[in-house]
Fold these 3 entries.
Entry 1:
Amino acid sequence: MRKVPLLLLLILLIFGIGYGTYYYFIGSVEISKIVLQSPDNSALKERVNISLNRPAKVQIEYRKKGSEVFNKTPISTKKENHQFNLLLLEPNSLYEYKVVIHNYILSNSSNNYFFRTREQSPWMVHDWIKNDRPHDPSAIGKGLMMLCYRGFPGYIAMVDGKGTIRWYWQDKKMGVRLATITPRNTILALLAPAGKDQFQEKKKQPKGVQNYYIRTGKIGFVGGTEIAEINLEGEVLWRINLEEKDIIFHHDLKMNENNEVVSIFRDYKLYDLDKSKPELDTLWGDGVMTMDTTGKVLEKWSAWDVWDVEKDERLEEFANDRFHFNNVAFDTDGNYLLSTPIENQIWKIDKNSGEIIWKLGKGGDFKMDSESHFYFQHAAHINHNGNLILFDNGDFTPNDTTKTNKSSRTLSFRIDTTEMVAKTIIDAEIPPGFYTSRMGSSYLLPNDNILQTSSKTGNVLVTDKEGNVLWVLNTYFIPYRAEYVPNSIWENYKL
């Protein structure tokens, strides 16, 4: 009888150990059951429940039939029962998916399974893209565009370059004023009952201002009564009723690096404005509030604390809405940037002392080209190039006999705080037909195009840096602003 060579025995031994290891850790793990659901009858999300015969880590890879690239869910923790939400689906489309079982360094994939998504909800079927307008789908890049509907029922929608809604969240009782992506790849939303704004047309128009409306009362305009954090699977992580705390947020909110909510809130000051009356007058203004996710107020800053009312010549004129802060952002050093359109300026606020560090704009602290003065601006923030960018509504522009139509634009500045010079980097004026006297926003996309919101005309645009329109989204409502959602958030979120 021939002897088996030692090398062959060693190979057989290694193979046996390897196979045994594979069978123990992976091969012995089997799928017991798969159940598919469509949460909230959504056409854009499919829920997959997987049961195993023994605990293991699981991931799903999925793609639209015919697509070359698989999307991947995060890898779940080691357990027997798993639930996944497959996101960014397209309505009435065939998808294939496979279950990948992970254990230590080994993995095993199932056969391909298939499902078809539901038809789109009728209320979301709309002529979002018009063929007679620019609609290059590549203009927006790989990300999505997020906008909010503040009517009832309110919703948040994310739209791709083809005008297809790829993600949405709907509330059953509130309108959605605005929403923003947080540092931990969730969505922070400001909610309010539809039609609860308090504002009135001012009979006596301030000099040089047309169609001026003032906010009145505590809720004012674009006021929110609830805030909520929503994950990318559409689940509400927490929700706070602000009215129960006698607080009204409005116009903007952000989450800082400590996962705290920073927002603009309505604040007032009692002042003897009318000397003929025995009672004091209530002056309405704004401040910045920091709140944790349980609703505990951590910090408050009020513009009234640093404002010299005795020297304010416009105090009576704007007593109901003196500052009208319409956005808050963080500078690179963590201090606040506030847009105050009544002053046509951006203010930088020391978040510790509360003092105004500088003012940018007409009559501010920086030398700048007068052609770059902005009027009733919105959405000021630091872009990915480190420059300050904003949407210039242009509503306060002095009369120019050479210009028959007013226009809005995106402006970006390189701020030099040593020489106190603001150099204009971008001046992207959108066509006069998209002029919007109120609201609006600008974001510099990763491909250096600009996402601009023409709120009053119901359009969202992508332009180049010269203002040439590359893509237009036709909304059927007034979008307060449209925010860019980078593709990276889907790669970094966790179950």
Entry 2:
Amino acid sequence: MSIRNALLLWHRWFGLIAALWLLLLAITGSLIVFYDEIDRSLNPDLRSVAIRAGTAPLDDIRASVEAYQPGSALDYLMLPQHPGDSILAFVGPRLAPGAKAPDDFVYRQIYVDPHDGRILGTRIFGEAGLDRRRLAQFLYQLHMDLSLGPVATWLLGLLALLWTLDHIVSALLSFPSPRRWRESFRIRRGVSGYKRHFDLHRAIGLWLFPITLMLAISGLSLTWPETFDSAVRVFSPTSGFPTDDLKPLARPDHAPALSLDRAVALAERKAGGQNVQAISLHPDLGVYWLRLFDSRDLDDSGRRWIVVRYGDGAILSDRHMAQGSAGDVFSAWMFPLHSGKAFGWTGRIAIALSGLALSLVIITGVTIWARKRRARAQVAGRTTGRWRMLRA
């Protein structure tokens, strides 16, 4: 078997096996580029509040959220980024040292009015469904793990790795003649049937090549983060998360002396007045992990991380994800590129359109295979018929 035939065999079988998965990822990816806009339009009663003066203390909101679901502890708090936004709280089980989360614990998203602490409503995180409450999240979960959990996430990481390798194979197959390389980017006029599908498959795939290769690599970083980070460290050191070096407490601290509002004030003062976007609570480590936005951010998600100790308000860490080694910067670009947010609306629209174009590449690829298979079957049928006639 020649090298080209071996590459064709790989490309054919990878495409057939991965076609359904990649098609699902392409379609859902095109939609969740506009996740926030879709969810806000479907659920204004959860996502929006009337603008008025005053805000409720964050510790009162924490108490209200934990009282709403007995046995829970506030895990993560997303603060309003614009006037009229609600607060989004995530809860987890309140665990004793060494205990495991109960199987029946419900991981809720609880939406709160920031002005008076009133609970607006709740959703179960990751719950499948096509109604207005669950549609946007269901699309997001389909894209992240097919809504099937960690095993599917790992399989999607494997798909991203193989898809990355297939980009090399498809590039080699797309240029059979170096002197006629321009023809590979063209869709010929006046052709139909197999030739039309072949041109669409090859030309669109080549024009999309930089974007789809980026999506494959960044997808690998999001599904296999530890493996990806280890691979990046081969070329450049990375800093890791700000809580990696902290030692667990003897007993989780679910009643910190330092209030949430005080932690926010300390972080914002340290950041020169930048607003805190989100707070992650770590009772096992005795720290708040606060996220802030600043001019170094590549998208609309704050990636300046400030860690504040529960006991005395000491700032244990302050760094930006996009600052540091080349490995840190490379890793920081992965999600903003994958989502298109690195380039604002232009990038988001480009990713959405690329997902639709990739769907066409996948469909034409399967169609090419089906046409060839049908043609081979017809040739085999004619040959068998002639042989039978000769024998007769």
Entry 3:
Amino acid sequence: MKSRTKFLFSAVLFGSIVASSSLLLTGCGGDDSGSSNQSNVSQMGEIITPHLPNLQFGSVEFKNGKVLNFTWGIGSAAAHRQGDDEKTFYTMTDRGVNIDCKDAKDIIGIDICNGASGVIFPFPTFTPPPTIFKLRLSDDGKSVYVVDVIPLKDKDGNLITGLSNPLSNFQEIPFDKDGNQLNYNPNGLDTEALAIMKDGSFWIGEEYAPSLVHVSKDGKIIERLVPKGLETELANANYVVKGVLPSIIAKRHPNRGIEGVAISPDEKYLYFTLQSPLDNPDSKAYSKSRYVRMYKMSLTDYNDIKEYAYQLDTPDTFIQDNKNTTNPPKQKDVKISEMTVLENGDVIVLERITKTTKLYKVDFNNAVPVPADKSATLETDATGITPLSKTLIFTTDNYNDGEFPSKIEGMTSLGNGKLILINDNDFGIRGEDTVIKIINLK
């Protein structure tokens, strides 16, 4: 059968998402109230599930005749700008539609990669760029509609791809839908975290390098900050690349890079976090360690970066994820997926496996940085290190199974105690919907 690719809209028609009346649906959503067993964490107010339009993306037919239909996956990150009203917020995609080679037979029905380790990009010529969505709640809070779509661009205004970088510390082979190996792309970003400044510019955390990316309000990359030493490997990127981040974070485990960013209320500092422990000295440490590195960086002096240790919970404490007793989660399954800052400066961290999501208030004000001589061995020896103090303020385990979506990756504060939670549906590869929840911390 001749392979075909069908696009429901192209990159040059992003504006049609905003204009389409089909994306503005009001009065269609329902409310989900939290169950009464919430008292052992905090009394939550009403939990709202606003209706989100079905953002169709495109379909692909693979060489075995299997057709997959995709929807936009906009929940890899979330952000809210100081001064905006409580109904306006931003979310972001990750690097686009991709299927891990090891999952290809299960999802597509054939081993497209012929046993190789890598990732399949079904839309390599379309190059869907990592994209920021500006969203707004309807007046009744029961629906969400798209206000603007901001694809990321290089310094010349060309759309950024999500294809893998040519990095020595990241040997992920990119393939197209027919199993042909693609070229690496120095401009590519695997975006996973989002924060917005008062001037409308964005700070993005990404996984490839890993890196921090400063982006103008129209989506053009201003600069990309990478671990010291990696800037030479991305010298061909069509934007500014600076090697200023701690070199040790280049040891991030594949696809476990920078997963959360947040800006202090005075905009003097940027907080950011890795998703998991590092491969330091190797992947065995990543699998067993409970210590994730978090950072506080001055936005006026990138060399002023303080490192902190965050201690993950043990996997047995994630109740919903432990219901499958034949395959219980392991320590490496526990991860950080987001962080945000409240108006009073409190930092909230999202810790999860798949079904269970926990929110912790983390105390950076009284935190003790990791001593320089201890940083090199944090994953294997935390002797003499004081981890960040954390207080549980919310867990989805206090609700019935199914009341919250799996794989919640986006979180931001709307102000006045309200938080947005949104899941990453992986562009609907397995048929998952994008779900938004609004919880009230008061």
